[in-house]
Amino acid sequence: MSATLHTKPWSTILRVLPSWRVVARHRAARMPARHSKETPSRTRSKPRSSAQYLRSPSSRGHRMEREAKELSLDLSDFNRSSHDFKRFVTELVNSTERNAVQFEECLVSVFLPDLNTFKKPVPHDGVSELFEWLRDSGKVRRIKSLNIPDNTTVLMSDGHVSECILERFEIERFVWRKLDINLDILISSPHKSVFTEITLYSTGNFSVLYHWASKDGIGSLPGLRSVTIEIMALNTKNQSQKAQERHRQTVDVYRRRLEEMLMERKREKEEEQGRAGDTKFNFSYKVNTDGKWDFPTPLYVTHQPDEIEQLELIQKLQACHHFLMNMKDKKGDPRHIRNFDKLREWDMKEGEDNSHLIKVAIIDNGAKFRQRIRDCIERGISYVKADTGSADRILPWWMVSDPHGTQMTSLVSAVNPWCRLYIARVGKGRRDILPEDAVQAVKWAMEQKVDIISISWVTKSMEPELRDVIQEAAKNTLIFCSTADRGTGSGPAYPADYNGTVRISATDKYGSLMPASENGSHAVNIPVPGEDIPAFGPSYMGDGIEVGTVSGSSVATALAAGIASLSLLMLMVFNDEDKDALRKMDLYTNKKMGSLLSAAINPSPQSDPLFPVAAKVKELPDRWNLATIMARPEMKNT
């Protein structure tokens, strides 16, 4: 997966991007160019399907219909200084899409971002608003496991955590990365009987340890079944060998005394629970005297400003959008208007057949669920786990750490605002995709009966299982794949080199093949513009990511998938044909669709472009007549 990012000042970008984006609602007016409010290392795994599906809003509002509610909230995608957590939370809380993401009343886990990566005066800014939103809008009442990796220099106060978290939610497992916390914040909680497991961090201060292990400490948490105490070792870089040895000896004495007290608490708790009828109650404890107080270094992302030029292709697509949206006002052919209205029909009830709509699956690293693309999103699923912690920590598909998938999604939805998008997250970044996750994602896309699968990433190894599922999917689905942006001598690029795929290479703004794009051997190869293409990314990653341009074969692939989906729509609008008819004409095969895309993007001098300039846009119905298209020189050769 390769996309080179260039950014530039807002004033220049906004002159281009608003004209590139077209409102995909039942109106022709263009939306104003402004910020839109949002809704809110790998291990091998399969997803928890009950938490990963999300349906899109209807055209009567942005009401979301869910197949399943979210079971967890993992925010570790924000473990980098380039991401603005506070901005993300503010947009989430203030969004009018109150029901865009729904949660179960009891969450399996909530994992906050590592606040050590936020270089701000108040790194935890936004935490209280997030939990207030979870309680009031998310309707969450209980959290089985809560992990707070607090900033180790600017910590949240006991009162802050107590007021915004502990008093609002029933929490079973509680881990707060803070040294020598006052256990009274748990004991004074109205939900103190719910705590079953806690992890405590200590500097080795015995007065604090004594209180923790006393009857007034963990002895006052009646439901507690497990406690882990991490006593920190001295920093070997800052302390002499003699000081370190003295600390170890002192802590070892403390450990023995602490374990004696914990053994007494164990006996008391088990006897008390036995008298209450729970003869199987078991209290366990662990004391570690070699804890490490070291944390990750913030990641920085730099961007190089560049100039943006609007491609002629984008201008033509924009003219096509306006023609479709204005057919009714311009008193166009009633059949065309009826066909178009059916193909953009979003106001569908749960369970209604939507097989007539154009469906595109984007298999990438997720897509931020934001205003500019949310209208097109039908469902999403994630196959990605967090780096550490419980095996149940599956990262959401709708909240990402890398902008690539969001940018690819924005390209597809910009080219065809009337398609339905199916988002499959198979990576955190751009080079950590596991083949077995990609296999599951392709199978999921097939289950959704999508028309097109867009894959904007590359691997150099041939994976038999991925090859087989790609070739199976290609029997009924158009699969667009990137070539590698590493030069022509870099060997095969998968999954592009599997049989049945539509293989995409990137061209520069002048139409020449970009030096990095490969010229393939095993699949249809289509050159598509892939330099300085306007795209939207997550707003919390900064202005240069939220609105900017992207380059590379991955960009060309998303653009091609969008154009193919728009082409299918145009064929059905102007010919009274359905998908089955197009399949009988082999337009769902890589060769025939490859020829059609070549005619649409790079027409021969002897043929009229399928996407005319604005002055000739009235010719669209004639140019997209099936008989005319099938008679074109490009189509006769396949």
TrEMBL record:
Pfam families on file: Peptidase_S8
A molecular function GO annotation: serine-type endopeptidase activity
An annotated GO BP: proteolysis
Region (Disordered): 28-65
Span of domain Peptidase S8/S53: 401-566
Protein's name in the database: Peptidase S8/S53 domain-containing protein
Annotated source species: Chaetomium strumarium
Lineage, opening ranks: Eukaryota, Fungi, Dikarya, Ascomycota, Pezizomycotina
